């Protein structure tokens, strides 16, 4: 099983490394093409791609560091490196979006004469490269928050390349130069608002927040259905990386609980089974009590 997991991780690393090289080539082509064609939309796509290249590189490094085993200093391991990478990448993306929007406003009042043919040729190259990267990362983005953040980067860049191509056609055949800053607004706005949910998710994880798809009250209700439990309180729920979920709680045993009728280990197994099957929580720390925390348990 470990060999299969290691093989998958190596494939992910290879995809990320290939994506770095591919996107660096696309970025270089688009920067040169944007300068030669005087296209702000193409330059915005180039800066977006440059950010993507840095994002992929950060993700690649974080993906390697996250595999380090836990130690006496990092008892939860190093998985948070990937969450930090996702947070940093998302912030970069939002800052660049604001910068491009401001530049677009300037260009509305002083539009450049754009060379449509160069803009079109370079944008097509960028689109092909982005589509390849999207294909490489699609599967891993479903299981990994770090790759998900990166996938959104590349997907938004793919969409922006499509807009640049449409804009190039309008410039070539209609001399509609104003379309360049207009599409810059659309691209930067899309990138910014697409980044907001991911920023919220990464911040929530870094703040030890409970996963959005789990309600603590639901956990409390399910566990308190068990006959040997009076109530559950002091519940803390968090995730290290968006996948592994942890829970700790104080559990007050019912008045009729005694060691002859109940096996405490089996009680723990029963609770953990509920946590795993209904809430996908695989790590728990449970403190059993009779009269301790009595006031807190009544309040909660």
Give a verbal description of the structure.
The chain is mostly helical. It is built from nine helices and three strands. It has helices spanning 2-37, 40-65, 80-109, 116-141, 145-174, 179-206, 216-223, 264-279, 294-299, and strands at 229-239, 245-253, 283-289. A three-stranded mixed β-sheet has the order 1-2-3.
Biggest β-sheet: strands ordered side by side in the sheet: 1-2-3
- The share of residues in extended strands comes to 5-15%
SS content category: mainly alpha
Main beta sheet: strand number and arrangement?
3 strands, mixed
How many strand elements?
A: 3
For the residues shown, what is the average pLDDT?
79
Shape type: elongated
CATH superfamily of the largest domain: Cation efflux protein transmembrane domain
The proportion of residues forming helix, as a percent range, comes to: 55-70%
The total count of helices amounts to 9
| Rg, nearest Å | 26 Å
User: Low-confidence parts, pLDDT < 50 over ≥5 residues?
Assistant: none
Helices and strands, in order, run as HHHHHHHEEHEH
Q: In the CATH classification, which architecture of the largest domain applies?
A: Up-down Bundle
Number of domains: 2
* Separation, N- and C-terminal Cα atoms: 42 Å
CATH topology of the largest domain: Alpha-lytic protease prodomain-like
- What's the CATH C level of the largest domain? Mainly Alpha
């Amino acid at each position: 099983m470990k060999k299969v997991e290691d093989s998958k991780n190596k494939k992910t690393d290879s995809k990320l490394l290939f994506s770095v090289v591919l996107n660096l080539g696309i970025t270089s082509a688009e920067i040169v093409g944007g300068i030669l064609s005087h296209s702000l939309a193409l330059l915005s796509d180039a800066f977006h791609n440059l950010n993507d290249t840095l994002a992929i590189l950060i993700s690649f490094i974080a993906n390697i560091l996250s595999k380090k085993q836990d130690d006496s200093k990092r008892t939860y391991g190093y998985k948070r490196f990937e969450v930090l990478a996702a947070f940093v990448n998302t912030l970069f993306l939002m800052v660049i979006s604001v910068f491009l929007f401001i530049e677009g406003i300037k260009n509305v009042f002083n539009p450049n004469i754009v060379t449509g043919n160069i803009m079109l040729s370079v944008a097509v190259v960028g689109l092909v490269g982005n589509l390849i990267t999207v294909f490489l990362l699609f599967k891993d983005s479903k299981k990994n928050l770090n790759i998900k953040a990166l996938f959104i980067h590349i997907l938004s860049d793919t969409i922006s390349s499509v807009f640049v191509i449409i804009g190039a056609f309008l410039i070539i055949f209609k001399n509609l130069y104003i379309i360049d800053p207009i599409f810059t607004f659309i691209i930067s706005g899309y990138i910014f608002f697409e980044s907001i949910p991911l920023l919220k998710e990464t911040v929530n994880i870094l703040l030890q927040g409970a996963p959005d798809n789990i309600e603590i009250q639901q956990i409390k209700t399910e566990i308190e259905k068990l006959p040997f439990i009076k109530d559950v309180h002091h519940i803390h729920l968090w995730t290290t990386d968006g996948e592994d979920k942890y829970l700790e709680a104080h559990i007050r045993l019912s008045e009729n609980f005694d060691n002859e009728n109940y096996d405490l280990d089996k009680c723990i197994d029963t609770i953990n089974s509920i946590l795993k099957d209904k809430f996908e929580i695989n790590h728990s720390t449970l403190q059993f009590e009779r009269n301790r925390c009595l006031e807190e348990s009544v309040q909660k």
